[in-house]
Amino acid sequence: MRSIATRPSSDWSEGSGRSIGRVKIYDTSTRGLVELPEPPGPIRMYFCGPTVYQRIHVGNARPYILSMWLRRWLADRGYDVTLVENITDINDKIYDAARAEGTPSIELAERATRWYVEDTDLLELGRPDVEPLVTETMPEIVGLIEELVEADLAYQAQGDVYFRVSGFSDYGCLSGQRPEEVQDQEPNAAKEDRRDFALWKGRKDDEDACWPSPWGDGRPGWHIECSAMAEKFLGGAFEIHGGGLDLVFPHHENELAQSRGVGRSFAKIWMHNGLLQLTGEKMSKSLGNIATLRDVVDQWGREAVLLYFMTGLWRNPIDFSQDAMSAAAAQVESFRNALRSAGTGSSAVEASAVSEAVWRPFVEALDDDFNTAEALAILHGWRTAGEYDLLRRALEIFGLASLAVGDAAPAELVALAEAREDARAAKDFERADSLRNEIERCGWDVRDGAHGFELVRRR
Hints:
- This protein is α/β, with parallel strands linked by helices.
- It has three domains: 13-282, Rossmann fold (3-Layer(aba) Sandwich), CATH 3.40.50.620; 301-404, Four Helix Bundle (Hemerythrin (Met), subunit A); 411-457.
- It has 14 helices and 16 strands.
- The protein has helices at residues 61-76, 92-101, 105-121, 138-150, 222-234, 248-261, 293-300, 302-310, 322-342, 356-367, 372-385, 388-397, 411-425, 429-441, and strands spanning 13-14, 24-27, 32-35, 43-47, 81-85, 154-157, 160-163, 197-202, 218-220, 237-244, 266-273, 276-278, 281-282, 318-320, 444-449, 452-457.
- A four-stranded parallel beta sheet has the order 5-4-10-11, with helices on both faces. Strands 6-7-8-9 form a four-stranded antiparallel beta sheet. A three-stranded antiparallel beta sheet has the order 1-3-2, with no helix packed on it.
- Strand 6 (154-157) and strand 7 (160-163) form a beta hairpin.
- Mean pLDDT is 88; it is low at 1-10, 14-19 and 344-353.
């Protein structure tokens, strides 16, 4: 991991309408589009990653995919981009899950962290620039809590340390919550105010892992973790903070209060992606209505998963179903077949080799609140019109360059296909059909053409 020095903030403004050269993103705090500075920025992004205690579901992958796509797009537009995406490996849910299976909490968190990296690697989008762990950020967490105590924004109560909500006048500015209507987030009779939330939790008898602090052994509260990790790697001010819509309150509201309470301006834009819905309900580990990312990739392939996420605007909810995935898989095949017919060519095309006038609508779609659904429609238009160089370049932004590259069939399958050709030439159609069936059992199709056969992997 590497520390990144804070850089001066750039020119910012709220925007409307479209213009090349100014990327606009919807900001939860202002409820409107905000323009990024001109390239090269910089653009520093912090996205909340998972709390690791089991395999992630496909909905957990949305902020990861969004952040990786956005980093690719901004880099393509000439920005200097840094992406930090944390992994929460200390949390109440981890203690509860470890206790239930009789596993040490640290061991479970380490195992689930490996699962998360392995499962998201299946998407072949690369990794964020930094993926900090809470367990590796403890000095910064303790230091930030000490600052809050010194600023009279935090106090100790029976071994715990709480943030004093009444001391931060802007509390509720992100989520729209009225401070007087905020419910008790963490019941404790020792708190000064029911709204106050934990920064440090003293060790409980049933918890098997703890860390030292000025207030006694314990572990951090959930919200302080991200404030400390964001500042450690991006500084006290950065451009974009992302995460699921369910994090607006209390998690991100509390992050903002902590960091701004000690004088950091923190995030300029708050991006909250919509949640996946399964049969009309939010997909959730706690509800038990989940489809794991690994299972979905195994069933449909990574390309279909990525294209599925393109079909909806990032900040809107999106329905997940077998029909939705089937439709995404069909679109993937339409691109693959078109590019295969055109010849594989290069998977990366320089901007100078592309008609910028035809490329412009794609730029406008993504610059205008990263509208992947509109961009996808443009890609289909290029497919129909035979604009294959444009199509390859655009697909690469979304990690789909593989659609332009044919798979090489194993030598033994090529031999079977050649034997089938010989059988067809000898009019031994029974043997030819038997050989085709054998090839199909291996997961490949034989396509006959004017110039011979082609072997195509089944998806």
